[in-house]
Amino acid sequence: MSLTAxxxxxRNLDKTLILAVLLLMAFSIAAIFAATSAKxxxxxxxxxxxxxxxxxxxxxxxxxxxxxxxPRYVPYLYGLNIVLLLIVEFFSPEVKGAARWIxxxxxxxxxxLQPSEFAKILTIITLSCHVAQMxxxxxxxxxxxxxxxxxxxxxxxxxxxxxxxxxxxxxxxxAGIVFVAGAKWQHLVGLALVGVLLFAVAWHFDLLKDYQKExxxxxxxxxxxxxxxxxxxxxxxxxIGGGSVRGQGFMNGLQTNNRFIPENQTDFVFTVVGxxxxxxxxxxxxxxxxxxLYRGSLIAATCDDPLGRxxxxxxxxxxxxxxxxxxxMTTGIMPVVGVPLxxxxxxxxxxxxxxxxxxxxxxxxxxxxxSFF
Length: 373
What we know:
Layout: H1 15-40, H2 43-64, H3 74-91, E1 102-106, E2 109-113, H4 115-134, H5 141-150, H6 152-159, H7 164-181, H8 185-204, H9 210-220, H10 231-243, H11 254-257, H12 269-302, H13 306-330, H14 348-366
Antiparallel strand pairs: 1-2
């Protein structure tokens, strides 16, 4: 159904979701400025503002398109996903032990595109279209395996970069979509147990990278190597604990200003929030995320079209997994797997992909028959 076919399209525009996203972006720019201004001035914060500005255009374009037309483009979108990941596989230079980026020739800016970030959104679209066509057959185990095979190639290509965190994101997206589609929980539990068994086999036969094993060891006992592998987690805990209830104040974080946490504008940006704004600021940030997840879930629940419901569920699954894992690893209750905090961590590719996901939610909300405002 097109946008013009909706009787009250503008009334269905989720202004609460838009406001929450704008607040989150403002939070991000402030945190990145606090984390990096001592060594780079306002440079990275300004760049993130530019990334967000471009991302808002992407969000608007995606929201304006009718998602009902997406199934006809699935072969092209799936092919684009694989091609971008293959370019990384064969042509991307290795940076810090990983090959994940395609360098773009942008004058005056060292910008690297990360296709694995866009793989998340492309997978949400193509997998949702694939599962929607199955209808109730998703309750049959062979069709559930067929849906899992849909994400196998991009997942394996991302694992080879290596990027275990993003690979797990694709699995989380798959689980969220097939669960909402009606897959039997017994089948999902069975596949989860198989996944645990495969992980044990990979560990035993040294199929995992050494640094991936070290992250598990560090998660279990960060004090075993406090100046090495456990450094990030321990310093993060010190920073968040030092924030106490009300924080040390904006730009006054001791761990942040003294650069005890390397690259805390990316995966560990929550440590800046925890140290400088304390428990109160952390709760405000989590409250903003709660609004985004609630509005996304509400859009999925009130959409009477299976495809729209599955796409919205995929976006909510994406944000939920990122939120739980990122904050979990900065507080020491999850292993460090390199998953950024959505619309908070520094980076253009992640910002554009996340805002494209928000655009999908807004577009689905616009085209619902019912309104919850």
